[in-house]
Design goal:
It is built from 21 helices and 10 strands. The chain has helices at residues 26-31, 56-65, 91-110, 146-152, 154-161, 164-170, 178-195, 208-226, 237-250, 257-267, 275-279, 285-297, 312-319, 343-353, 364-369, 374-378, 412-426, 448-460, 480-492, 510-517, 521-527, and strands at residues 3-8, 40-44, 69-73, 115-119, 133-135, 232-234, 322-326, 358-363, 389-394, 432-436. α3 packs parallel to α13, α9 (237-250) crosses α10 and α20 runs antiparallel to α21 (521-527). The mean pLDDT is 87.
């Protein structure tokens, strides 16, 4: 209970030639922080193959006997090309990501880690999907073919057919020009009856309503056929996201109540059919992204589950493993493009997943990199939202992620980190692991652990940020350092008024005047504070 302070291990791929031995395997990584004044390590997992390290369980048991606790940071695109994309709507990628997700959970349970952490979104940003060539073989949130999902939700198919912003993505693969298809139906019907031997006056054409229905049926079949193929076009995931958004918005029989609530929590009840709302992607894409995450946890909640999908819930429970979703970082130029980045949005996702072992990790540096103010967003959490924050990543508050800069004692960075954690504490975060994520260099940690110990000390005392004492800044209470500063301030408080007063100005007191008379004014100025 309370706050655990820890440091991230770093990765083998980034180590110097001299230091690589320290990062050869999970056990070595876990031991790195022994020399940094903490007993908690966040191990950076570079590949699931690390779980095959010889005698790994025995080595990790020896680590635990030393009193070292540890969690794992799951694979990320910076050092693994096979990382799980839990928000992906591509049929084959969804299954591969789910299997990788399960493999990382099993590996973490096997070494008795406290938590396994994932970035909440690592897929291509929705905003730039039009640049990516993708398969038309899409899936719903449970990984099933989107075509099968549409069979269960015919009203969504009807809606989709009428929305050019959806059908235009299919391009040449599906002709959805209703008027053209109606003319084709009329022509074909006329030819059919004439070929049957009927005279022109005997031909009886179907009603306009019947022709329209037949044309729509053709479009439906073409869409269904296209969504079962491996044909490619640009940004196909957008089709699935638009359809799932409408499904969540509508609610109803086939949509779990949690996802309808999730839509309202994230979008404030927005309408995907409203162009102004839809074009502001950050309004609604996070809700659909969260729904795709939700689907990985509840394979049993769909009408016809996809075969071969393992349920992660029993695995987490068996290993008492916390699964934590972190605010991901954004790249320069794509600040608002990340699919799911705000702490509040990730909280609503975790609330919908509704499992005691699933929580949030807040990284202020990542949030800043997405052009979002972390403190303002944290303040929007419900009064008890901080209770679901299991992990915090802290460092010098640079928006140029990943900076991972140290936190000097007495610095502005130390005060800022305190303010972020203070806001989370006000929201109920009383038990969390606070990790300083190391950067590079000879000594990447420096004073950061000392800073964090002071931060935790005053968090536990519920000290307001404006009431932090001298001790927080590394100064002894009533010590000479503070006294010297006060004397300097008093001596120079009236400097802005020099030359403006009509009375004579005095620069020296009793001892200073005597020193000046003896020609010792400079020596006096240097020694007067000692």
């Amino acid at each position: 209970m309370g706050y655990d302070i820890g440091v991230s291990s770093g990765i083998f791929k980034a180590a110097s030639e001299e230091g690589k031995l320290e990062f050869t395997g999970l056990a070595h990584k876990a031991l790195w922080t022994m020399f940094k004044g903490v007993m908690f390590t966040q191990i950076d997992l570079e590949s699931v193959s690390e779980f095959k390290e010889p005698e790994l369980k025995k080595r990790m048991e020896e680590v635990r006997k030393m009193g070292i606790k540890y969690g794992l940071h799951g694979e990320v695109p910076e050092y693994s090309s096979a990382f799980p994309k839990l928000d992906c709507a591509l049929f084959d990628e969804w299954k591969r990501s789910h299997d990788r997700f399960i493999e990382e959970i099993n590996g973490s349970v096997g070494i008795e880690a406290k938590y396994l952490l994932f970035h909440a979104s690592t897929s291509e940003p929705f905003l730039t999907l039009w640049q990516h060539f993708q398969s038309l073989k899409l899936c719903d949130i449970w990984g099933r073919l989107l075509a099968d999902f549409l069979k269960e939700n015919d009203s969504l198919m009807e809606w989709m057919m009428e929305k050019e912003f959806v059908t235009s993505i299919l391009g040449r693969h599906v002709n959805v020009d209703l008027d053209y298809l109606k003319s084709q139906v009329r022509e074909n019907e006329q030819k059919k009856q004439m070929n049957s031997g009927k005279k022109p006056e005997e031909i009886k054409m179907p009603s306009e309503e019947e022709i329209t229905e037949k044309a729509k049926e053709i479009i439906k079949n073409r869409i269904m056929d296209a969504l079962k193929t491996d044909d490619f076009t640009y940004g196909t995931e957008r089709v699935a996201y638009f359809i799932i958004a409408k499904w969540m918005q509508n609610g109803g029989k086939t949509c779990p109540a949690e996802l309808h609530t999730l839509w309202k929590d994230v979008t404030n009840g927005g309408d995907i059919g409203d162009e102004k709302f839809r074009n502001k992607f950050e309004n609604w894409v996070p809700a659909v992204t969260a729904a795709y995450h939700w689907g990985h946890f509840y394979p049993e909640r769909c009408q016809t589950p996809r075969k071969g999908i393992e349920d992660p819930k029993p695995l987490l429970k068996k290993g008492n493993l916390q699964l934590v979703f972190e605010t991901p970082m954004a790249g320069s130029g794509g600040e608002e493009a990340v699919r799911l980045v705000r702490p509040t949005q990730i909280y609503f996702m975790v609330k919908a997943i509704n499992l005691p072992l699933v929580g949030v990790a807040v990284d202020a540096e990542h949030v800043l990199s997405a052009n979002v103010d972390p403190i303002k967003d944290i303040q929007k959490l419900p009064f008890n939202g901080g209770e679901k924050v299991f992990v915090c990543h802290v460092g010098y508050p640079s928006p140029m992620a990943p900076a991972h800069l140290p936190i000097p004692v007495g610095s502005e960075a130390q005060v800022y980190v305190y303010k972020v954690l203070w806001e989370l504490r006000k929201k109920g975060m009383k038990n969390a692991v606070i990790i300083f994520e190391r950067g590079g260099g000879q000594e990447p940690v420096k004073e950061s652990i000392l800073s964090l110990r002071l931060i935790v000390k005053y968090l536990d005392k519920d000290t307001l940020p404006d009431d932090l004492p001298e001790d927080f800044f590394g100064l002894p209470v009533g010590g000479p350092e503070l006294t010297r500063q006060i004397v300097q301030l008093r001596d120079h408080a009236l400097d802005p008024l020099k030359g403006l007063l009509s009375v004579s100005e005095e620069e020296y007191g009793f001892f200073g005047t005597a020193a000046q008379a003896k020609g010792k004014a400079e020596e006096w100025g240097k020694r007067k504070l000692k």
